[in-house]
Amino acid sequence: MINFSDKEKNKFLHELYEFLKIPSISADPSHKNEMVKCSNWLKTNLKNSGCDKVKIIKTKGHPIVYGEKFIDKTFPTILVYGHYDVQPPDPISLWDTPPFKPVLKKTKIHPHGAVFARGACDDKGQMFMHVKAFEWITKNTKLNFNIKFLIEGEEEVGSDNLEIFISKNKDLLKTDIILISDTSMKSNTIPSITTGLRGISYMEITLKGPNRDLHSGTYGGGVANPINIMSKLIASMHDDNMKITIPGFYDKVIGLNIKDKNEILKSAINISDFKKSIGIKEIYGDTDFSLTERVATRPTLDVNGIYGGYTGEGSKTVLPSEAHAKISMRLVPKQDWKEISELFKQYVLNFIPNSVTATIKTHHGAEPYVTPTNSKAYEAAILAYKKSFGANPFQQRGGGSIPIVPIFEKELGVKSILMGFGLDSDSIHSPNEHFGLFNFFKGIETIIYFYEFYTNKIST
Ligand code: BES
Ligand code: ZN
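Above: the input record for the complex with zinc ion. Below: its predicted structure, written as tokens.
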């Protein structure tokens, strides 16, 4: 076990707080300068932590931060990927404390305390564990591998510019393995390694009816209401057993093989805990599959936001001229996000009546990914968890997406290892996001062991 000194712990946490104070919201153009500030902060921290070479790479969007310490070309190289951008904190009124003023609070699940702030877990806190694990190794032992940090500012908006950078910088990014902490684990006593991510296709539909908002009494009944049509359209996208009705949607889905299914079901979700944790009376979805499969290994279609008409205080009688819906589809092997986006468009265009016109925008997309479980890196990860948690990690599939992971494989031919230390209850993307102190320091410890086992310098 590694016992970090109080001085070390305080230093790491103080720095994490500074990092979390910068509102690096990638989706919001008004935060462009904060993104630059955050990337510079990280560059300086990487340098102070022991990187020899650090640089900011400007892109058409937000900057990429690169850092490296190259020891010897006979040593293995590990590339750490993470993101410094965060999701918008809205709705702000639901935060107990401001999203960019990190505070430490104890919770039932985190009795040693958790840092509450947007990005605490996803992904500033988790990515920062790697920077501090690296710092600890350079200060306390000897680095027997080469390390490269590739930290982007656009993960939460699809990673388009990072993809371009990777395709043009294959030599710079040459590595043996990619290590990422941007997923979750089962619980603080049951660690898990994520062996798959879902893909995504994110679409936005705009339906336009009359050329202005109308009095719903004068015109109602004779004019198509775009919000009514949008509701019908959205409702039609699932059948009674929650299967998605878009023709061809499931054609390429290969499903889980029995071995993987058994592996994943070894740590199946406890339905009553699940319901309790998010305050629902009953679970929902495709009854042909267990809850564990539904939330990680099956494709989905969800409306993320819908707007139009009057949503202010009180009532207003209006037949709106427009309706908007933001819809994401989570995808599984071998669905292709561009193909699915096209099927979605065709479905919408075929569905809507001539009384409204539709514009369909593709925001971004990502392919699904499954990691190998028979590699040296996977073995090293298992040994690392065993040593730090004293427990064998389970295999789990992540229901979320990390767009760059399949691109790493396509462009660099390198696999990723997904060692997440957050909990599903840490409220990523929600108000009151947090990250346990236990998780932060256990994560750093596990990462240090991973390097030891991966480089074969330490035996079990
Ligand atoms: N950390 C998540 C990905 C994640 C969450 C993986 C939970 C597994 C389990 C990541 O930062 C994220 O939220 N990604 C976005 C990507 C999208 C905007 C393209 C997502 O999944 O919504
Ligand atoms: Zn996220």
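Notes for the reader.
The chain has two domains: 6-197+368-459, 199-253+299-366.
The longest strand covers residues 199-208.
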